[in-house]
Amino acid sequence: MEAKELIDKLEIHHALTAEEWKTLLLQRDDNTASYAAERAVAVRRRIYGDEVYVRGLIEFTNYCKNDCYYCGIRTGNKNADRYRLTESEILDCCAHGYELGFRTFVLQGGEDPHLTDEYLCTLVQRIKDTYPDCAVTLSVGERSKESYRTLYKAGADRYLLRHETADPAHYERLHPAALRLDNRKRCLYDLKEIGFQVGAGFMVGSPYQTTDCLVEDLLFLKELSPQMAGIGPFIPHADTPFSDRPAGSLEQTLFLLSLIRLMLPQVLLPATTALATIHPQGRELGLLAGANVVMPNLSPRGVREKYKLYDGKVCTGEEAAECMNCLQKRINSVGCRIVVDRGDYKKETESCTT
Ligand code: SAH
Questions:
Q1: How far apart, in whole angstroms, are the C-alpha atoms of residue 58 and residue 40?
Q2: 212 CB contacts (<8 Å, ≥6 apart)?
Q3: Which DSSP string do the residues of 261-281 spell out, in sequence order?
Q4: What average pLDDT does this structure show over 164-172?
Q5: Relative to the CA of 160, which ligand 1 atom is closest?
Q6: Coil, helix or strand at residue 294
Q7: Is 61's C-beta closer than 6 angstroms to any atom of ligand 1?
Q8: pTM of the model
Q9: Considering the chain, what is the average pLDDT of its residues?
Q10: Residue 262 sits in which domain range?
Q11: Residue 352 within any structural domain of the chain
Q12: Would residue 351 count as lying in a domain?
């Protein structure tokens, strides 16, 4: 089948076979990508209108016990300047964010042994008590089902845990042996079952990634059907084993964003910071490919440099939460607008009819 026919089929059936995915991925060219983007934006418009949701990203600790080969805050990176925000610093970020119009706070961090259930539950409860109209998203890695359940009961609404790659052999090339794809997937299914809005996702162009890996990623996303999907280009970090690897491409990331929108029409799909890092208009281009979420940085200025997952990470200026006016203008320029809203996942029945 021709690429366009495959895109039409995807829009209608929200699924392709492994072989069809592979054919489509291998046939990407400018025409195919712009057709996919056009269809993806049409689908997003039908469901979310012109609304773009914002999430205030609070990078609250860069301590991490894991040693993922791609990540700048891996435990093996002795050059990383470690920090952990205090509870009151985190609450200050929320206060600032609330004033700027944020109604979702994303607490992201490394797998910091300091983050016990007790500590996280108190934190989540404080935020939810102060801002009952806001959603709290956690992104603190792999934990037990019991722990996830406790966090959910404390009031956490959503959980981000990218699967990174759905191909087990590829997973092993990106992570030390202690980290297993099976466990990552188990976490995602547990989170979903407990009731979280769940976000999975992967890096585009990570070392050793093949088209077959991407096919696995798309099939896994379909199977899991998460409410959110986070994908962004891999970007090398100087103090990691992948320091000399090339970054993932803008074009491939945008194409995959469009395909994911067509496969999971309702999905909350961010135009990620990594995308904004590899291209000055990365956020806008992401929206034009079918994304509907942006996650400006709400962390205190002093620590932004330190939460360095990869080199060149944009962390001051227009992508930051301070510049909501600039961000609104940029988003208006691609026919969308930021809304003051929790930005929950819309179930199929809630789609816009206009
Ligand atoms: N500890 C949490 C948060 C990890 S950081 C967890 O395990 O989920 C958030 C995401 O940043 C990761 O899931 C990974 O996909 C991405 N990331 C890490 N290093 C990166 C790099 N070098 N380039 C691009 N993205 C990276």
A1: 29
A2: 22, 167
A3: HHHSTT-B-B--HHHHHHSTT
A4: 98
A5: 8
A6: strand
A7: no
A8: 0.96
A9: 95
A10: 3-343
A11: no
A12: no
